[in-house]
């Protein structure tokens, strides 16, 4: 039997706060805690992929009927698994592993793995209101967005808008900000931006055969 990869670490308050907020309200916005050099390198990677035309227009719709509809979703993406490895990406993946273990230990979510892609929204592009969990694939459980825009100014647009029962909450996509929310319940959208908007978007997934989650 394969055990969950487990590594001992002191859980920083920052990660515990994210877990508390998720349990309380279904979403959290926090500082990622990643070093400035790591954030810089990730931002450079995302922009270089765009310059090199190595990002592809993202599709919407269920398996079998995926299509590119820029009026609904205008970002361009590349999965991290498909990118040349580098130390900054390793640091990001490790930070996400720590967050995943913290959420499992505190909230017993049974999160098993993480899938993630770079995303670049050119000026004017957005993503209409949606949920991240697909009807034909219920494994995505917690969504995580790390923003990579060191030059972001108020008025640039591109906010993540969470549609909550008590009203909308907007998150500015400033470098280092982490937005975390439940994939099946938090409706959200990306407002069009005036400049290129870079991020890493990912999902903690459950195991399809987890007997505890049936
Ligand atoms: O970039 C964001 O703020 C959110 C992106 C998003 O909702 C998605 O890719 O599903
Ligand atoms: Fe989303």
Automatic annotation (TrEMBL):
PANTHER family according to UniProt: EGL NINE HOMOLOG-RELATED, HIF PROLYL HYDROXYLASE, ISOFORM C
Pfam families for the chain: 2OG-FeII_Oxy_3
Residue spans crossing the bilayer: none
InterPro entries the record matches: HIF_prolyl_hydroxylases (IPR051559), Oxoglu/Fe-dep_dioxygenase_dom (IPR005123), Pro_4_hyd_alph (IPR006620), Pro_4_hyd_alph_FE2OG_OXY (IPR044862)
Cofactor: L-ascorbate
Keywords: Dioxygenase, Iron, Metal-binding, Oxidoreductase, Vitamin C
Protein name: 2OG-Fe(II) oxygenase
Domain Fe2OG dioxygenase: 102-206
């Amino acid at each position: 039997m394969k055990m969950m990869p487990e590594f001992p670490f002191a859980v920083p308050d920052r990660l515990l706060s994210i877990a508390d907020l998720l349990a309380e309200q279904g979403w959290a916005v926090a500082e990622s805690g990643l070093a400035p050099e790591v954030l810089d390198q990730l931002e450079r990677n995302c922009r270089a992929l765009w310059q090199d035309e190595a990002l592809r227009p993202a599709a919407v719709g269920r398996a079998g009927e995926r299509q590119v509809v820029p009026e609904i979703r205008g970002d361009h993406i590349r999965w991290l698994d498909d990118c040349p490895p580098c130390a900054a990406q390793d640091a990001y993946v490790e930070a996400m592993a720590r967050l995943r273990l913290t959420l499992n230990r505190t909230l017993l979510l049974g999160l098993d793995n993480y899938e993630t892609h770079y995303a670049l929204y050119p000026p004017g592009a957005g993503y209409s209101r949606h949920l991240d969990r697909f009807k034909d694939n219920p494994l995505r459980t917690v969504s995580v967005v790390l923003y990579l825009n060191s030059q972001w100014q108020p008025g640039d647009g591109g906010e993540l808008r969470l549609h909550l029962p008590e009203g909308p909450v907007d998150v500015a996509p400033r470098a280092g900000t982490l937005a975390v929310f439940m994939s099946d319940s938090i409706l959200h959208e990306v407002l069009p931006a005036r400049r290129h908007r870079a991020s890493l978007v990912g999902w903690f997934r459950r195991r399809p055969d987890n007997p505890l989650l049936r």
